[in-house]
Design goal:
This protein has 386 residues and is α+β, with helices and mostly antiparallel strands. The chain contains ten helices and 18 strands. The chain has two domains: 40-237, Rossmann fold, CATH 3.40.50.300; 253-381, no CATH class. Bound molecules: guanosine-5'-diphosphate and magnesium ion. Guanosine-5'-diphosphate (GDP) binds next to strand 4 and helix 7.
């Protein structure tokens, strides 16, 4: 059953089960290792309950890998279509390409509002128009034509454009339900919580959010009025992102959580930049250039001479003291190489999906980027054409 049993939703009135209000899992008191576990006493109480996993995530930030997560997104989106609902497709400002899923367009309902969340991760000086342009381009490729695109932040310390979002939702839902959809970790649940804080007296039951994928386990419904609901959905999986590649314990180093401090390097040919043992950028040939790296502040960059870079990289692979080392890459041979030639007269933007992007202006540089197989690496024209 996909939908939270809720008296007001009218969608699933036939089955009476109790669900966790933090993640949407069906509650049970039999197996502590399965999702939805609560001690019997809590299970039998009449109160609204959080499952043990949500409780721990909130109080101790601990994460237990959950079994049995199997959500069919097509079915969720079919419900949204049938209802003529408004979809809020949320993308992460830091990794737009990684959060617009290939092929998603045809599954979305007609009315889509796109939200570029986590704006606060990028420096204030970063131009929002860059974000809008990149997003529009990515959406066009998937044939998605949103009603509008908003830039937001929904972090505990910084809210940005939440009132605008609330207004846009009110204006565009025409009395219908609203579905928050998108990849995991883009901040769907956080946006809903931020909206709930803006609506009166709905703050006591917030949805669980965390830096780990797979926090929201099932569709969670929040009544908007007698006929319509706001639905939070579990994140969709993007296999082409670094986030899907690395182990859960490394995600917290890879995903930026605070405002990114861009790192600038005056680079010369014959230099190589190593990002732990996750990726590597080689400046093979060309005139001197200034690279600006945007990445998690917890991910350090090492600069090596190109002829020593293989050794340097392989040393990182066995460096036990390196927090953000992945065990899935044991030498540079495990990475795939992508060759790029600079787009002359443009702002060049090399993007390693979900991990980082590098911006520079140049003309004749030859650049090789190494990343795990399957993670998308692109060079784009990021010039601001207004
Ligand atoms: N800095 C920042 N962090 C955010 C923002 N929105 C969500 N987060 C954090 O990102 C992580 C994932 O958020 P969550 O709402 O669980 O994402 P979901 O998987 O899309 O529901 C959590 O650690 C949130 O605190 C934002 O706008 N800015
Ligand atoms: Mg969520």
């Amino acid at each position: 059953m996909l939908f939270k049993n809720n008296k007001t939703s009218g969608l699933t009135a036939e089955i009476r089960v109790k669900r966790c209000y933090g993640c949407g899992a069906i509650l049970q008191d039999q197996d502590p290792n399965e999702i939805g576990y609560v001690p019997t006493e809590k299970f039998q109480s009449e109160d609204e309950t959080l499952c043990e996993r949500c409780y721990k995530l909130r109080h101790y930030s601990s994460f237990k890998k959950t079994a049995g997560l199997n959500i069919d997104f097509v079915t969720i989106l079919d419900h949204a279509k049938e209802e003529n609902a408004l979809a809020i497709y949320v993308v992460n400002a830091f990794s737009i390409q990684a959060s617009v899923l290939k092929g998603i367009g045809k599954y979305l309902p007609k009315d889509v509002l796109v939200v570029i969340n986590k704006r606060d991760l990028l420096p204030k000086s970063y131009n929002d128009d860059y974000l809008l342009l990149q997003t529009k381009k990515a959406l066009e490729e998937e044939n998605i034509h949103p009603i509008s695109i908003l830039v937001t932040a929904a972090s505990a310390t910084k809210n940005y454009h939440i009132e605008e979002l609330m207004k846009a939702v009110d204006e565009n839902r025409h009395g219908k339900s609203v579905y928050f959809v998108g990849c995991y970790q883009v901040g769907k649940s956080s946006l809903i919580n931020a909206l709930l804080m803006n609506y009166s007296n709905m703050t006591s039951r917030t949805i669980t959010t965390s830096p780990y994928p797979g926090t929201t386990l099932d569709v969670i419904s929040i009544p908007l009025d007698d006929q319509s609901n706001m639905y939070d959905t579990p994140g969709m999986y993007n296999a082409e992102s670094m986030i899907s590649f690395v182990e859960p314990e490394i995600i917290k180093y890879v995903l930026p959580r605070n405002e990114i401090r861009p790192e600038m390097y005056m680079a010369k040919e014959g230099q190589s930049f190593l990002l732990a043992n996750l990726a590597r950028l080689d400046f093979v040939k060309g005139d001197k250039v200034n690279f600006t790296f945007y990445k998690s502040n917890d991910l350090s960059i090492e600069r090596h001479k190109l002829n020593k870079a293989d050794q340097g990289f392989n040393d990182l692979c066995v460096n036990e003291g390196l927090d953000n080392r992945t065990k899935k890459v044991t030498s540079i041979q495990d990475l795939e190489v992508h060759h790029f030639t600079t787009l002359e007269g443009k702002t060049n933007r090399i993007n390693v999906n979900g991990l980082m992007f590098v911006e520079y202006n140049g003309k004749n540089q030859e650049i090789d980027v190494y990343a795990p197989k399957g993670v998308i690496v692109t060079l784009e024209d990021a010039s601001l054409k207004l």
